[in-house]
Amino acid sequence: MPELEQAPQRGQAPQLGQAPQLEQAPQLEQALREVAAEMAERADRGDVASYIPQLSKIDPKKFGIAAVTNDGRVLTAGDADEAFSIQSISKVFTLTLALGNVGDALWQRVGREPSGNPFNSIVQLEHENGIPRNPFINAGAIVVSDILLAGHQPREAIGEILRFIQFLADDDTIIIDREVAASERATGFRNFALANYMKSFGNLNHAPELALGVYFHHCAIAMSCRQLALAGRFLANGGNNPATGHSVVSAERARRIGAMMLTCGHYDGSGDFAFRVGIPGKSGVGGGILGIVPGVASLAVWSPGLNANGNSRLGSIALEKLAKMMNWSIFAP
Ligand code: GLU
Fold first, then answer.
1. CATH superfamily ID and name for 24-87+224-247+257-307
2. Residue 97 to residue 33: CA distance in whole angstroms
3. pLDDT digits (tens, 9 = 90+) for 26-70
4. Whose CA is nearest to atom 3 of ligand 1?
5. Catalytic residue status for 285
6. Which residue puts its alpha carbon closest to atom 9 of ligand 1?
7. Maximum pairwise Cα distance, the chain
8. Pocket test for ligand 1, best of 48, 88, 189, 282 (most atoms within 8 A of CB)
9. What's the rounded Cα separation, in Å, for the pair 303 and 272?
């Protein structure tokens, strides 16, 4: 049964009338409940990621979903309060921070095109002189970590990322799962290869192991669906936190981050996700997906089993169903 409550507010009272009341709220509550009930029954849950040993221990039966609407409702169903490893979803937040630090100069070191290749592919890097295709594949996110390291020790950069996410979600209890970070470091040979390769092209300013230290730790941030949907709400609300009215990024930047999510947010399954779901989303191999319905709501879903492209199998199906039930698509009239 989804819970309905007011989103937490930081500092000041929400400006009333700021976002129109969502007329579909009762429908949304019902839709979340139905989707969660259906997903709980399904046997075709995909395979939990095993290349990061710590992730392989997660129960594939878990399923959680949360929606935070721009008018301040937080609706959840299933295991929406259980923390999971957000993995690549963290790349949305590191990109946001890095754009804040260096602005459009970031795009000289990272591209903006879908890769059409697996998230950890090294082949493309050779053809493209060490410039990763986009900030959401591993190579691109490692460059973003390198940007966030400027003028900092790795510990400080990691702390800055964590505090930013805590601020966005208005929740200081969000933590980094150090065991996941250590597990990934111990087995991250391909990420070491990517970082060293980019260093050889001059596209890392710091030692590869320092950029990777930041990267492994931000991928290991643990959040629940509720926390994740709260952290993403600025993207659904033109760059402003709808609970406080405070600007996180400009409206233009929020749109551009959304565009990156739509075109590059699901590895080489990005086209299929856009086709089936029709909203910007970012997935992670922990089985989470952050979805943005511009002007309406921020969504988070978690089901640990992955499909062939490394995206949450039931999470993608759940968002497809929800979007259809609510008639949500950035292409809807
Ligand atoms: N930390 C993971 C890796 O580098 C992220 C994978 C993902 O969620 O895409 O392999």
1. DD-peptidase/beta-lactamase superfamily (3.40.710.10)
2. 34
3. 899 999 999 999 999 999 999 999 989 999 999 999 999 999 999
4. 138
5. yes
6. 88
7. 55
8. 88
9. 18
Mutate to test the pocket of ligand 1, among 184, 194, 267 (most ligand atoms within 8 A of CB): 184
Nearest atom (ligand 1) to Cα of 219: 1
Sign, CA torsion 110/132/208/220: positive
The pLDDT assigned to 10 comes to 42
Domains 24-87+224-247+257-307 and 89-219 share a fold: yes
Domain extents in the chain: 24-87+224-247+257-307, 89-219
For the entire predicted model, the pTM comes to: 0.93
pLDDT at 17 over 60: no
DSSP 114: -
Q: Which fold has domain 89-219?
A: Beta-lactamase (3.40.710)
Instruction: Please tell me the distance from the alpha carbon of residue 111 to that of residue 200, in angstroms, as a whole number.
Output: 18
Residue-wise pLDDT for 216-273, tens only, equals: 999 999 999 999 999 999 999 999 999 999 999 999 999 999 999 999 999 989 999 9
